[in-house]
Write a structure and sequence with these properties.
The chain has about 220 residues and is mainly beta. The chain contains no helices and 21 strands. The chain is elongated.
Length: about 220
C-alpha cells in the first residue's frame, strides 16, 4: 500500500496510508490530510491525490502559493517512488510501501501528466468537433444537454470527463486498444456515474454503443 510521510519544518508529523481513490490535502480539518493551521501558506483545500489504474496523480487545486514536487512547481504530476511534495512549510514524501506487485503484461502505461477534458454544459460545441481523418479514433457522442449531437474524439491514454467539484470519470486506453470507463470522484449528494444504466464499482470495459451517464450528461461510446 502506498504511503505519505508528512513533515513540518523538517520534523516528522505522521505517516498516512493512501486508501481512497481521492485524497485531499489542505488546512481545513475536513481534508484527508489536514496540515497545521498556523501554516497560512497552505490553502484550505490545497491539492488532491487521485488513484487511477494503480497510479497516483497529484493535482494542485489552484492554491494561492502552489504545489511543488522535487522542487518544481506542478499542476498535475504522476507520483513516483521517493517524490517529495512541498506546500508551505509542509512536505509529503511518497512511497509505494513494502509490497512488490508483479508487472502486468497488459498494464497501461499512463502519461506522466493527464490533461482533463471537461464536458461542462457551457462548453463551446465547436471545441468538441471530431476531425475528418482516414483513420477515425473512438469517440464519445453527446446525447443530452446543450451540446447534444456533438462528438469528442478519444486520442489519449487517459481522458478525464465531467465537472470539477461535482463529478469526474475517466476513459482509459490500454495497449491492446481496449477502453475502460472508471469513476474518479463524486462530490455531494448526486448520483454515481452509470454505464448502460448500472453503477460501476471498478474499471468497466467499454463496447460500441455503450452509454455513460456522468455529471448529468449522457454520452455514447463509438468505436468505428
Amino acid at each position: 500500500m502506498s504511503k505519505l510521510t508528512l513533515m513540518l519544518d523538517g520534523k516528522y508529523i505522521r505517516e498516512y496510508s493512501i486508501e481512497d481513490d481521492v485524497t485531499t490535502i489542505g488546512r481545513r480539518s475536513s481534508n484527508t490530510i489536514s496540515t497545521d493551521s498556523s501554516d497560512l501558506a497552505v490553502s484550505g483545500t490545497h491539492a488532491r491525490i487521485v488513484f487511477i489504474l494503480d497510479e497516483h496523480f497529484i493535482e494542485d487545486l489552484e492554491s494561492t502559493n502552489g504545489t511543488y514536487v522535487n522542487g518544481k512547481p506542478i499542476k498535475k504530476h504522476n507520483l513516483r517512488e521517493g517524490d517529495v511534495i512541498a506546500f508551505g512549510r509542509h512536505t509529503l514524501k511518497y512511497s509505494h510501501g513494502d509490497e512488490q506487485v508483479a508487472p502486468d503484461h497488459h498494464e497501461e502505461k499512463l502519461d506522466d501528466t493527464y490533461e482533463p477534458t471537461v464536458l461542462d454544459t457551457q462548453t463551446n460545441a465547436t471545441d468538441l468537433q471530431i476531425d475528418t481523418e482516414e483513420s477515425i479514433p473512438p469517440y464519445l457522442k453527446i446525447l443530452s444537454g446543450p451540446n447534444s449531437g456533438q462528438e469528442l474524439k478519444i486520442i489519449k491514454n487517459l481522458t478525464t470527463l465531467g465537472k470539477p467539484g461535482q463529478q469526474i470519470g475517466a476513459i482509459s486506453r490500454r495497449d491492446n486498444d481496449e477502453y475502460f470507463f472508471l469513476h474518479v470522484e463524486t462530490v455531494g449528494n448526486i448520483d454515481k456515474p452509470l454505464l448502460n444504466g448500472a453503477s460501476i464499482q471498478e474499471p468497466a470495459p467499454l463496447k460500441p454503443s455503450d452509454v455513460i451517464e456522468l455529471a448529468g450528461v449522457k454520452l455514447e461510446f463509438i468505436q468505428p
